[in-house]
Structure to design on (127 residues):
């Protein structure tokens, strides 16, 4: 199957697990050894509000290629109005877009690009 033809919510489903795995490894490598502390720190990266913020920052910095922006736009414009109670639809769609582009890159085995995205996010959070 052509990766471009995969439903963007399926890409986001995959991207979510990859993104969370990067965050967990990052926090563990920072030396956080308490599960409750790990969870509190992880929320700063994995909440829809923060994922949307990181995505918009990267877009403003022209971080993404045209191909990646195409996936992001497809995910953002996907007709699905369900969202968690703790954020609005637009924020949720931006968060989903970030996860979708990560899932897309993973299926293309562009792991170095995923690393660049995660480094940007970790640096953004630390600034």
């Amino acid at each position: 199957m052509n990766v471009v033809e995969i439903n963007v919510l399926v890409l986001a489903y995959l991207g979510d697990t990859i993104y969370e795995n990067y965050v967990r490894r990052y926090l563990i490598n920072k030396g956080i050894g308490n599960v409750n502390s790990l969870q509190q720190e992880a929320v700063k990266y994995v909440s829809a509000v923060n994922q949307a913020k990181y995505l918009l920052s990267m877009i403003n910095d022209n971080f993404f290629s045209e191909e990646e922006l195409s996936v992001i736009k497809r995910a953002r414009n996907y007709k699905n109005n369900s969202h968690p109670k703790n954020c609005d639809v637009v924020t949720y769609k931006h968060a989903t877009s970030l996860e979708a582009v990560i899932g897309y890159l993973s299926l293309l085995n562009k792991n170095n690009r995923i690393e660049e995205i995660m480094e940007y996010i970790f640096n953004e959070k630390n600034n």
